[in-house]
Design a protein that fits this description.
Length: 341
């Protein structure tokens, strides 16, 4: 049986541009991750093959300072390492690892205890570099949002332990916007700029940020669905819609494809409705920031297609008319619990 994926970027107007620092800085960031000895064997091999530096290169290509780009590249690598680690954890273990990570992020000047899980040093050393280049406003927002991310990781572990599926797309998105840590990634887009807080809190900017979050998260869910459904995952928008509406995998995929294209149109409209900025300099910075959000949508899509994480190497679904073999699923609908809020 085959699955037809929607061509979600058929009308996406933003092009792919890569950072000038990709090759050199990505190698430094990978060496940092490997020095922590969190990954080994097949998992380390998968990490290298996934080439997260290619994603960072697209989404942060506008960074002209290599120190800024290094921190951004480190965050992308850190998040994927942490995501793969936390996906295997029980609720209790997820709470422990989350507490260690948050403590290390906040207390970056304090050496980590001997024998602690290396996730602590990963967060401490990242935070040290982040503090060297970021304003107080960026640091505060990042820390608040990273704490939200860690709490969401625990909530996802609770759902996983109970084989629970969120009862509606709306309730799922409320959690998904946090579990991807994309808001933290948006925070780093602001490192080179000095945009006044009242502009960033303008409803038009906040609306555009939510649209960007949803496009990144759901775009990933659509392109990763086949792999995630096959291994029995429940944290995916397509799976949620299957259960919420009683749809087949194909019908749920079609539904999310339409949903995504509508959000693309809404996002493009929102890009043309920016708040007054008071000066040409600030307006240019705001334009660069919202373009950075668009770059995250572009980069997520391009990386998801070509990293080998969701599609076999050399089997780009564009070349097959978006038709892919539907993988056999370990998912058991009879054991699923609906998570109601």
């Amino acid at each position: 049986m085959n699955l037809i994926l929607p061509d979600i970027h058929e009308r996406w107007p933003f092009t792919v541009i890569h950072s000038q620092w990709e090759a050199a800085v990505s190698a430094e960031s990978i060496a940092w991750i490997e020095s922590l000895c969190i990954l080994s064997g097949p998992r380390l091999k998968q990490f290298r093959a996934a080439n997260f530096g290619a994603l960072a290169s697209i989404v942060y290509y506008h960074f002209t300072d290599p120190r800024h780009y290094r921190v951004a590249c480190d965050l992308v690598n850190l998040l994927f390492v942490f995501d793969d680690l936390s996906d295997q954890l029980s609720v209790q273990d997820a709470r422990t690892v989350a507490a260690t990570s948050m403590d290390a992020l906040r207390n970056w000047e304090t050496p980590r205890a001997a024998g602690e899980h290396p996730v602590g040093e990963m967060h401490r050393s990242f935070s040290e570099r982040l503090h060297l280049i970021s304003s107080a406003d960026v640091l505060e927002e990042f820390t608040v949002n990273y704490n939200k991310y860690l709490r969401a990781v625990i909530a996802e572990a609770e759902d996983r332990d109970r084989q629970a599926v969120r009862s509606s797309l709306e309730s799922y998105l409320a959690l998904r916007r946090e579990t991807g840590a994309v808001t933290c990634c948006f925070n780093l887009l602001l490192i080179p700029y000095g945009i006044p807080p009242h502009i960033l809190w303008d409803s038009r900017i906040m609306h555009l940020e939510i649209l960007g979050l949803d496009l990144v998260c759901v775009g990933n869910d659509i392109l990763s669905f086949n792999v995630e459904h096959a291994r029995g995952d429940t944290h995916n928008a397509v799976i949620v819609v299957m259960h919420e509406r009683g749809l087949s995998s194909q019908d749920a995929m079609d539904f999310m494809g339409v949903w995504y294209r509508e959000k693309v149109e809404e996002f493009c409209t929102a890009m043309r409705d920016l708040p007054p900025c008071g000066s040409v300099c600030v307006r240019d910075q705001v334009k660069m920031y919202v373009t950075g959000i668009a770059n995250w949508v572009t980069g997520n899509y391009e990386w998801s297609l070509r990293s080998g994480r969701y599609f076999p190497a050399g089997e780009d679904p564009l070349g097959s008319g978006w038709v892919v073999p539907l993988l056999e699923s370990k998912f058991n609908r009879t054991k699923v619990q609906l998570h109601t809020l």
